[in-house]
Automatic annotation (TrEMBL):
This is Uncharacterized protein. It comes from Zooxanthella nutricula. It catalyses: UMP + ATP = UDP + ADP. Belongs to the adenylate kinase family. SUPFAM superfamilies: P-loop containing nucleoside triphosphate hydrolases.
Length: 363
């Protein structure tokens, strides 16, 4: 991944993790620097996979494409890899596709899984969301969507039925109904490129009903990588907003509205921040430090994103991964191909060890 492009990279990792120790080693080595979007499991019966592998063995030249090795590999997959598949399923991060259907049927099912990926960016009014998002977008190829900007643009749009409603809510420091915000966000993502898009959503979700509306409307089609929380004291944010109010022309950049917004943030949004933190999907940056300090902290969060692709031998991992990579801009890394390349590399101390494991159908 470092060779292929670390920052902002997108990788399909095929045939990994195959065991509990694989997954433990992944967590220990990556240390939270790589976001796993989900695990894609290609579901296929052993009888169909066996027939495919025997057919492939007529021309592949692979030492493990024979009946004895194939059945050993199935046994290893059941005992070592299926518990990992079940673990991802229990965590709600498994996507399953049946691969006994036609190639086009498999592709139709795979295609709908690769909608946009999103990072939510939360922080109190004046915490620096717009500034940080602009720099992340420029550096890592994200599209920045500000929930507040979308609402203000809709408020000013001639003929908008929602304009007056949004105007009143913003002036009073109240949250706009969740359905309106989610509708505007979805429209913006569709306009900006749905399939494979990368979006920073700034200032959303601000409340429990925002998050519930998000889940209901997106229906699992959008992958949330994490929530970035910009941590800043109210005294610093208040000073920034009053300064901005001298030139911004915004109706809510006055002391009364600012303090109402702080109150709303504490009561409505902080429980959402705490929820993401409890789930282990919150990344926190202090924004009272210098702009370069904030950026240094932000930059390290945007390493590559990964989709693990698992399935029994002959389930179609290579075929599906190649098409996903071509269509959605992922780099395809096959754990098996990397091992086979190492096995053939002249002078490799690992070659003989890898060779014996593959012949015996072991992981």
């Amino acid at each position: 991944m470092e060779w292929g492009g670390w920052e902002g990279g997108k990788y399909l990792i095929d045939g990994f993790p195959r065991s509990t120790d694989n997954l433990e080693a992944w967590h220990k080595t990556t240390n939270g620097q790589v976001a796993v979007r989900f695990c894609l499991f290609l579901d296929c019966s052993e009888s169909v996979m066996e027939a495919r592998l025997l057919e492939r063995g007529k021309t592949s030249g692979r030492a493990d494409d024979n009946l004895e090795s194939i059945r050993k590999r199935f046994q290893g997959f059941r005992s070592e890899t299926m518990p990992i598949v079940e673990q991802f399923e229990a965590q709600g991060t498994l996507k399953r596709i049946g691969t006994e259907q036609s190639a086009e049927g498999v592709w139709a099912d795979a295609r709908i899984l690769f909608g946009p990926s999103v990072v939510f960016v939360l922080g109190g009014p004046g915490s620096g969301k717009g500034t940080v998002c602009a720099r992340i977008a420029e550096t890592f190829g994200y599209t920045h969507l500000s929930a507040g900007d979308l609402l203000r643009a809709e408020r000013k749009r001639p003929g908008s039925d929602l304009g007056a409603l949004i105007e009143n809510h913003i002036k009073e420091g109240k949250l706009v109904p969740a359905e309106i915000t989610v509708r505007l966000l979805m429209q913006a993502m569709e306009a900006g490129g749905w399939v494979g898009g990368k979006y920073l959503i700034d200032g959303f979700p601000r409340s429990v009903d925002n998050l519930e509306a998000w889940h209901k409307t997106t229906n699992g089609q959008v992958a949330v990588r994490f929530c970035l929380f910009l941590d800043c004291s109210e005294s610093v944010m208040e000073a920034r907003l009053l300064e901005r109010g001298k030139t911004s022309g915004r109706a809510d950049d006055n002391l009364e509205s600012i303090r109402k917004r702080f109150q709303g943030f504490r009561s409505e949004t902080m429980p959402i921040v705490e929820q993401f933190e409890a789930q282990g999907t919150l990344k926190r940056i202090g924004t009272e430090q210098s702009a370069e300090g904030v950026w240094a902290d932000a930059r390290i969060l945007f390493g590559p994103s990964v989709v693990f692709v698992l399935g029994g031998p002959g389930s179609g991992k290579g075929t599906v991964c190649a098409r996903i990579a071509e269509t959605f801009g992922y780099t395809h890394l096959s754990a098996g191909d990397l091992l086979r390349a190492e096995r053939k590399r002249p002078g490799s101390d690992l070659g003989a060890l890898i060779e014996n494991h593959i012949k015996e159908g072991k992981l």
